[in-house]
Amino acid sequence: KIRYLLPITPAIAALAGYLFCEGLEHHTQRVLIRAKACLEKLLLVLPVLALIGVWVGFHHSHKQSAAVHLPLALIAALLCICQAFAVAVQWRAPQNYKSLGLLLSAVLAVWVLNLLVLEPMALQMHDTRTFVQQVEALRQQQPGQVAFFKVRKDAAAIKYLVNLNYDLQPKFLNDSADIDAIDSATYLIIREKDLSQAQQSISVQQLAPVLRDHFDHDYYTVFYLPGGHSHP
Predict the structure, then answer these.
(1) Which of 52, 96, 128, 208 is 20 to 30 A distant from 19 in Cα terms?
(2) Can you tell me the mean pLDDT for 95-120?
(3) Nearest by Cα to 71 from 131, 112, 123
(4) pTM strictly above 0.85
(5) Sign of the C-alpha dihedral, residues 201, 206, 208, 209?
């Protein structure tokens, strides 16, 4: 988790920066000199490696259940500019400024990745507001309480509640018998992997889902149960 890494980041940065300090040409520091040379080679191609990584990740995401949407043209253009700058520095800049230029190019590439790839991807993969708004819109049209199936009270339910501007007391159901016992209008929210178990309920078998969408990092299906034990 990032909160564990942030406190040690300054120390790691200082250790990494030591390779670029003056005086490494001393014969007793050959290992550091070689490490610096390898790092400079990596920094030289870092933007194009980042571009390849973004392309592979983007196409891989579309094979999964939740695809991400990124400004690929802008990302590619900025990373290409970073790469061109790194190559120009390597070929044209004075020796004293080559390391600084490569570092600057790498920092810009990482900044582009964080701002235009990692942050938007995290927001899209863990989005909760869109799903909640859709469920609440259904409840406005046809009132009913909210119930979660096989969801802990400290998990997805909290992420649902924080998107509301009023107090909601949802129900938490653990098996199909609990679903069949519902006697009032209810919107039943079921995680994709628990859907087969929920469909053992007669109430769910008789109904079609009213919503299926991405919620947090998974897909959830919503059924509207009118209540009243309409099944035999």
Answers:
(1) 52
(2) 90
(3) 112
(4) no
(5) negative
